[in-house]
Structures are given as C-alpha cells and as structure tokens.
Amino acid sequence: MLLVISQLVATRPAEFNLYLFTIIAPTAVIAYSFTAIVNDMINEIYGEKCAHIAVNIALATQVIMVILIFLASQITPAFFFEHEAAWQDIFGLSLRIVFASWVSFFICQHLDVWVFSRLKEKIPKQLALRGTVSSSLNLTLDSVIFITIAFLGVMPILPLIIGQIIMKNMLMLFGIPWFVAYKKKLNSRK
To answer: What is the pLDDT of residues 142-154, one digit of tens each?
Structure first.
C-alpha cells in the first residue's frame, strides 16, 4: 500500500519546512520512506529469499495499478461526472515517472535486501544499525535514480534530490525504533 500511495503522489513536489531550512521533495517521500524498513522487517523475520520475493510482488502491484488506472481512464465517465479533467490530471501518471519509479524501486530495494543480509552475517545483534545502513543506502540511491530519470530537464533536480534524500532518511529514522520494538515483541513470544 505504501508503494501505491507513493506512486500516486510522486508528481507533486512540496516544500517541507524543517524550521532551520526548507527543502523541496516529492510528496511521495512521506509514504515511500517506510518501504525500506518494511523490507528489512521481512528480511529479518523471513529471510533474504522472501524479502526478494516481496520486492518483486510489490513491483508487480505497481504494474497492475498502472494498468488498471490506464484502463479506467479509457472508459467514458458518467454524463453527470463534472470532475473528469481533474481526475485525468491526478491519475494520468506520466510514463517517465512510472518508469523512474519502477527502475529505482527494483534496483534499490534488491540492493537493500542484499546489504541487510550481508550485514546480518557480520553484525547479527545490531538490528538498528543494519536497518539504518541498508535503508539509508536504499533511500539515498533511490532518490538519485528516481529524480534523475523522472525530472531531468523538467524540474530542477539537485534541490529535489537533496530534499528527497534528507526527508526519506529522516522519516526512515523515525521508523527504526518501531522496527526494533517489533522484533523484540516477536522474540518475547518465543
């Protein structure tokens, strides 16, 4: 669900006032930031193979969503529906943004799974560190790939990349304690 929400709101850049400074990033960072942590949770609990499968399933849901939105947009709206132009604007996903999302998600989530697993072999008791390192790498690289493919030549990409990296990583850090608490709760049930 986080991925679908991110896909739908990715085209809208926003200003995030962080009190000391304001950054610009696509609004998708709010939901997307937590996908890396969820992926790490799957990896931690079910293993590397299941985490790779989860990434592929999530990508498949993106493809299905885009196909269904496209099909829905081809159907003639009811004669009384007055918001067709707005509906088309909202759901008329740019192919470039969709492609950027798919490429960056596929590369970076699989990289996250691999890094998290290698770190688990090296530092098995450091869950928070593993989650932070693998997720930060994922979200940072994802920002560079996604923004470059989606917005190069359309919007100023450097402020978007910087803003997205900062926002994604800040939000991800809020999720790490939840991840650790969830793992402790699972361990206490054993």
So the answer is: 999 999 998 899 8
